[in-house]
Specification:
alpha+beta, 3-stranded antiparallel sheet, 7 helices, about 40% helix, about 25% strand, elongated
């Protein structure tokens, strides 16, 4: 196991060897030293009547042989439901515009009404106009959030984006008496990522953490570097996620919040995968949630190979 550089696979192998287990056809995704999809086989070798001291470990690289069916299904659902959502949002925009226009017309028609009645009608029209405007902003923000623009990868400082997102939630954390603790790796190098999309990821994750601690708490944000991978961890001590909800948290429209859209973590998942990364989640009710992003540190854009057919 000492020859394995991916920390997650290393820990898994270490446990298997300590327990002396046999493993056949176990699938693993690693990021170290670069992204690979592996099939792992482990076979204990017995020598006479001696305790097990030797293991045959076989790592089969299946990268490029196709993504796992589950991964394809998740990404496929995200793509199709985001398209559906955008279509619905566009359809909502048309009647909202029509309502706004007719409210203005009603306002002009009120000029011939008596002053006493006019005041009541104008008051009602003002409320309707404000609420229509609010719905219009919600639709526009939704369209902006779900717009699937190809990632614009540029070399940048991930800490700057993270600090910007944390500053945005500063007043809200102060209001809810949430303590913020940060530990940023000083050795973090600049690398390729889409600034706007990663900002969106951080906003969603911080928002979830803050909403999970309405009575106060602590949010820890930590970054680390391991070879060619950057890890960004968000740890809160809020409500946590139930065992029943855990398998569904990245699914579209799945939410336990009364006013939640259920798209936040689905968008986070999609963006992280676009960057070639991975997101791991550990949580338990009333014990908080830990979300860790693993991002490959790349400084050069991949070149598209020349056509050979």
């Amino acid at each position: 196991a000492q020859a394995v550089t991916d920390p997650e696979l290393y820990r898994w192998l270490e446990n298997i060897l300590l327990e002396g287990k046999s493993v056949y056809n176990e699938e693993h995704e690693i990021l170290f030293p670069r992204e690979h999809q592996l099939i792992v086989h482990v076979k204990p070798l017995e020598v006479g009547h001696e305790p097990v001291r030797y293991f045959l470990i076989c790592l089969v690289d299946i990268t490029g042989m196709g993504s796992r069916e589950k991964e394809k299904n998740v990404l496929g659902r995200i793509q199709s439901l985001l398209r559906l959502s955008k279509g619905i949002a566009h359809e909502l925009g048309n009647p909202l515009n029509s309502i706004a226009i007719h409210l203005k017309l009603l306002g002009k028609m009120c000029e011939s009404v008596s002053s006493k009645e006019k005041k009541k009608i104008e008051s009602a029209l003002e409320v309707l106009t404000q609420e229509t405007g609010r719905l219009d902003r919600i639709v526009k923000n939704f369209l902006k959030a779900t717009r699937q623009i190809p990632p614009q990868f540029k070399v940048g400082n991930i800490h700057e984006i993270l600090e910007e997102a944390l500053r945005f939630f500063g007043p809200e954390m102060k209001q809810y008496k949430i303590k913020l603790k940060t530990e940023f790796a000083p050795s973090m190098p600049p690398f390729l990522f889409d600034r706007d999309k990663m900002h969106q990821v951080f906003l969603n994750l911080i928002k979830n953490a803050v909403e999970a601690m309405p009575n106060g708490g602590e949010l820890k944000v930590k970054t680390a570097v391991w070879q060619k991978v950057c890890s960004i961890a968000f740890q809160d001590n809020g409500f946590g996620i139930s065992e029943d909800d855990m398998p569904h948290i990245f699914e579209d429209y799945y939410t336990t919040k009364e006013e939640g859209s259920g798209l936040g973590l689905a968008i986070v998942y999609n963006i992280v995968r676009e960057h070639g990364g991975r997101i791991d989640v550990k949580s338990a009710p009333r014990k908080g949630t830990l979300m860790i992003l693993y991002m490959p540190i790349r400084t050069h854009k991949l070149q598209i190979p020349e056509q050979t057919l």
